[in-house]
Amino acid sequence: MEVVRRYARSPAAVFGIVLLVAVVAMAASAGWLFPRDPLSLAGRPLIWPFQNPRFPLGTDNSGRDIAAQIFYGARISLLIGLVATAIAIAIGIVIGALAGFYGGTVDTVLMRVTEAFQTLPNFLLLLVLVAVFGSTLTTVTIAIGVVSWPAPARLTRAEFLSLRNREFVQAAQTLGLKDAKLIFGEILPNALPSVIVYASVVMAVAILLESALAFLKLSDPNVASWGNLIGLGRDVLRVQWYVSAIPGIAILVTVLAVSLVGQGLNDALNPRLKGR
Amino acid sequence: MRLLSLVGRRLAASIPTLLLILIGLFLLLQFAPGDTVDAMMAQMGGGDAATAKSLREFYGLDLSVSAQLGNYLWRLARFDLGFSSIYGKPVLTVIAERLPATLLLMGAALSFAFFFGLVFGVIAARGVNKWPDTLISTLGLIFYATPSFWFGLMAIVVFSIYLQWLPAGGLEDITVMQTGLWRTLDIARHLILPTLTLGLIYLAIYLRIMRASMLEVLNLDFVRTARAKGLDDTRVVIKHVLRNALLPMVTLIGLQAGTMLGGSVVVESVFSLPGLGRLAYESVVQRDLNTLLGIVFASALVVIAVNLAVDIAYARLDPRITTGV
């Protein structure tokens, strides 16, 4: 409750949660407001926004409803963002926990692998993964998760290093707890808050990565993704720039919402570090 | 001398990382549907199985995976990146042609982001929680959330299509032959929008880190001492605070080098710049895995080089570093 109160005190954090709720509401109401397939032809191509009441945001190059694509796109962005983040955080926690808990050779080997992943430009690795495994919704989501774990892993490791030798851990160890119990039952719950806060950064980046991939026409072409629409609008950018402009604003709002909520959570959970 | 040993140590430490990357990627690409020969056959417009077999023998693709890996690493050690079947040139040549544009773009974007991040970060920190700080921090948040390719497209709409101030793409005007200073100016004009587009998100990150780091250093004892000596505020900030507050910024350059290279893939595609990122995109679309692997190798080298430069800069800023690990 204390956390909620502290969170609510920051106007930026409240604004963030309002935006996020709005995006979630868009995703939830998409099927109800636009029962037709968002990728089906709906009307004349390239109608400007606010011209035809049937298409409040206009239509794209091939006559598909932009508003419908924006609403369904919210589903795709949130879905990819959440699942990819969950994958990245899960891998990061396991690797970081093992490295931080055992230290020594395990730490060296795991950190070498992490370093290798960080030396590779993540978008380039994403391109390689998509080139090898194809670009369906599932592979793209997993690929984004796989390129995003090093930072959470480093964070988890740092938390584990600082918690590893605390008295409560030593006490639990003396009681004869198994390593797995120590890692997941004792240390992880204490390391989790900062990792969860960091998840908002991972999610923001994941959404941006997917949209960039879709913009390059390397993501799943069979789903209504904001990035796809921006890529499509590029062909008519010279005159009908709104086709690209509208989905871009949707991405901006979503990423902004996720970052603001993350920052708000951070300030609420670690009040001493406020303003950092 | 100490610096030299630091450089040597760092380079030696990066070799296992590089090996790990190369082996991992090589094994990963074994999963790719189709190999170089398939790509070549497609280019030639098909061919019979016997030709394919002899080509595979010629390129050593009929060997076991471990033998191929060994061959590959041995060729890499001699800087032989293989042959690009799509471009009909050695991969090394293709990359060498494309690398300068990317390095230019990265350097420009990094300088832009670093300089303005520093300036805005200092302004925000000095008026913390007053309106300049609020404005700068809000803009930073928005820049951070802006997809770079979208910003690039919108910049093209505004500056190239409506205002017609700046070119919409390309590295230079190829309709007129230019030399010397005019050519430099022309390239600079072409790079303004790509630099802004690529640098925007880093500007947001840098200004945020600079602000936090300034706030932290401003509260340290030696700053109070400097103030107590009677130094004016500007002097304190420039001579005492800045140098210490810069350390996290410099660290960030190393960490961001890889992401920036990745970002240039998108930006180069938006502005059709003939760079490494665009090459990566083309080789993915055309399934030229040899080139793709070469690009990954080259960009890993770039990232390692940037990190080395960062380490040296770090040692210059903080002499305690070289004596440590």
- CA-based shape of chain A: elongated
Structural class of chain B: mainly alpha
Cross-sheet strand order for the largest sheet of chain B? 1-2
For the secondary structure, the number of strands of chain A is: 0
Task: Give the termini separation of chain A.
Answer: 23 Å
Low-confidence stretches of chain A: none
N- to C-terminal distance of chain B: 15 Å
As residue ranges, the low-confidence spans of chain B are: none
Largest beta-sheet details of chain A: none
SSE order of chain B, one letter for each helix or strand: HHHHEEHHHHHHHHH
Helix coverage percent of residues of chain A?
Answer: over 70%
Strand content of chain B: under 5%
Q: What is the number of E strands of chain B?
A: 2
The biggest beta sheet of chain B is recorded as: 2 strands, antiparallel
Q: What is the number of helices of chain B?
A: 13
| Class based on secondary structure composition and strand pairing of chain A | mainly alpha
Write the layout of secondary structure elements.
The complex is a heterodimer of chains A (276) and B (325).
Chain A (H helix, E strand, L loop, with lengths): L1 H7 L2 H23 L32 H37 L1 H16 L2 H12 L3 H11 L2 H14 L3 H8 L4 H37 L10 H8 L8 H28 L7
Helix pairs in contact in A: 1-11, 2-3, 2-11, 3-4, 3-6, 3-7, 3-9, 3-11, 4-7, 5-6, 7-9, 8-9, 9-10, 9-11, 10-11
Chain B lengths: L1 H28 L6 H9 L4 H10 L6 H13 L5 E2 L4 E2 H36 L4 H15 L2 H15 L17 H39 L2 H8 L4 H38 L5 H10 L3 H29 L2 H4 L2
Antiparallel strand pairs in B: 1-2
Helix pairs in contact in B: 1-12, 5-6, 5-8, 5-10, 5-12, 6-8, 7-8, 7-10, 8-10, 9-10, 10-11, 10-12, 11-12
Can you walk me through this structure?
The complex is a heterodimer of chains A (276) and B (325). Chain A is mostly helical and 276 residues long. In chain A, 73% of the residues lie in helices and 0% in strands. The two termini of chain A are 23 Å apart. The model of chain A has no long low-confidence stretch (mean pLDDT 87). With 325 residues, chain B is mainly α. Chain B has a two-stranded antiparallel ribbon. Chain B is globular and about 85 Å long. Chain B starts with a helix and ends with a helix. The chains are: A mainly alpha (276), B mainly alpha (325). The interface between A and B is large, with 48 and 54 residues.
